[in-house]
Amino acid sequence: MLVFILNAGSSSLKYQLMNPISKEVLATGLCERIGIDGILKHEFGDNKLTLEVSMPTHKEAIELVLKTLIESEGKVINSIDDIDAIGHRAVHGGEEFASSVMVTPKVIETMKKLIPLAPLHNPANIMGMEICQELMPGKPNVAVFDTAFHQTMPDYAYMYALPYEQYTKHGIRKYGFHGTSHYFVSNEARGMLDKKHNTRIIVCHLGNGSSVSAVLNGKCIDTSMGLTPVQGLMMGTRAGDVGAGAISYMMSQEKLTIDQALDIMNKKSGILGISGKSSDLREVLQGMQDGDDRCRLAVEMVAYNIKKYVGAYVAALDGVDALCFTGGIGENSSLIREIVCAGLDGMGLIIDPTKNNKRSGKARDIATNSSAARIFVIPTNEEYVIANDTYKIVSGLEK
């Protein structure tokens, strides 16, 4: 089976063509600057292809991708008929979707009702589904939700201590994100532990967007992101946890509207806001090495925030069997892993400096032999989760 995996954003879209049974990736790529000028970056095998083509809308972008897969020098299949199904990343499923589902008119209608919870993401996700239905009629489409994995959280973990009516009337609660990554990594960790039952796993998905989850016996019981992705860890440009009083005071002092305050918290805060240099941790780490004190502060804040959540989730899980690092920062920054794990010996987490500093694109254990709990670095694979869920639903293996 070949699954076309689509992640449609507001002005971009990512895609892969994958066989979920063999895990073979035939092609992967990115369309950028949709509605502006248009750039397609297409990779297949060891080859790369970049095209500058006008993409007024997402429809032209998806048409170009399909044409590239079939006709151009980036060809990997003979026709659209070779594509068996389309799997879509869907950001917000609210409480309505606790698992991946076949895309139907009712599903799209429900997702439209959830747009207030994800105004930047859900409209683009829906658009991708509708365009694929138009361009590839009869092909099954499956929606895989970022929030679905976290729907197993107990009510005392996902509720905010606001008047209860804010939940019943408006659905204001913690939902969590990066669910496909947390699912994949925690499941891989269970395999590495060779222990499918009684597992207590903490997953740190660390990138430009970051979140931590506590996973008990394969089910999420808590996660750091909330109603929106801005809650939780300090991130590339997101503030993470900030007291409501600090926000209202900032708004008062700066004479800001709600939208202006949200723009600051989502796009001008985090690593960028503290360092004043970049949202890219690699540049900030270099700045710290060069003696920039604000870069040093940003790095230490990032690591401290992660460590606080790790400690909290060890308590929530009543112990820990494995701490996992994934995502661009989690997989590649040995220094962040080192700082996070420093002083966690009492929790049974002892990092091995030599193992930690070794580069590898594969899943590995970086704990000492004497560590009571394991510390894993596991490359995430969200696209495989989308492709595999699509395969199972289309094949009737998951009902």
TrEMBL record:
Record key words, sorted: ATP-binding, Cytoplasm, Kinase, Magnesium, Metal-binding, Nucleotide-binding, Transferase
Subcellular locations according to the entry: Cytoplasm
Reaction(s) catalysed (UniProt annotation): acetate + ATP = acetyl phosphate + ADP
Pfam families: Acetate_kinase
Cofactor: Mg(2+); Mn(2+)
MF terms (GO), sorted A to Z: acetate kinase activity; ATP binding; magnesium ion binding
Keyword Metal-binding annotated: yes
UniProt KW Lipid biosynthesis keyword: no
Residues given in the record as substrate binding sites: 89
Top-rank taxon: Bacteria
Assembly and interaction partners: Homodimer.
PANTHER family xref list: ACETATE KINASE, ACETATE KINASE-RELATED
Job of this protein: Catalyzes the formation of acetyl phosphate from acetate and ATP. Can also catalyze the reverse reaction.
HAMAP family in the cross-refs: Acetate_kinase
UniProt family annotation: Belongs to the acetokinase family.
Name of the protein this chain belongs to: Acetate kinase
Organism of provenance: Arcobacter ellisii
